[in-house]
Amino acid sequence: MFGTHDLALFALTVLVINATPGVDLIFTLVSTLTGGVRAGLAAAAGIASGCVVHTLAATFGLAALLMASGAAFSAVKWAGAAYLLWLAIGMLRQALRGGVAPEAIASGMQARSARALFRQGFLTNVLNPKVALFFLALLPQFITSQAPNKSAAFLFLGTWFVVQGFAFLAAFVLLVAPLRRWQPAAWVRRALHGVGGALFAGLAVRLAVTEPP
Description:
By secondary structure, this protein is mainly α. Helices cover 80% and strands 0% of the residues. It is built from 9 helices and no strands.
């Protein structure tokens, strides 16, 4: 379809990518455990929207700019690292406060609204230049050289990636949401926030040290 091939292999590749722990999966997990299904789905929708941007970038050559220009890559890289670090600091501050009841956490998450979580999910994804380069590297592997319209092929595969990725995250949200029924002690809640903050800080550092291709 549209000059693509090996779609079963493409679907399997997308599944493996989605199931590999990373920024998107961790953010969806944290959002679900602190805010419930609605919060998790809002985060997942934001991430999917970020993938839409990367699909369009790969289709119309913007991702190629990141590959060709070290300055452009560095600008996006540092913006993404700073945003991840900002998220990490927020979680670490929550860990230091301690003694916050799950109900208070949930109400605070709802007060931020699904729109805020959507925006956070969108930014964590779209400000990661590695995702843009990944799209540029992955999608052409499943497009034939004789494709009549390569832009249409890019859009088709990108749309597939977005839909399958959102479906995976939505299923993940429904799977982990029941864990919210567990009422951990205050020190456990603090530890969870601390671990989450440390993970995001580590991801920010890893992104910051990424060299341009």
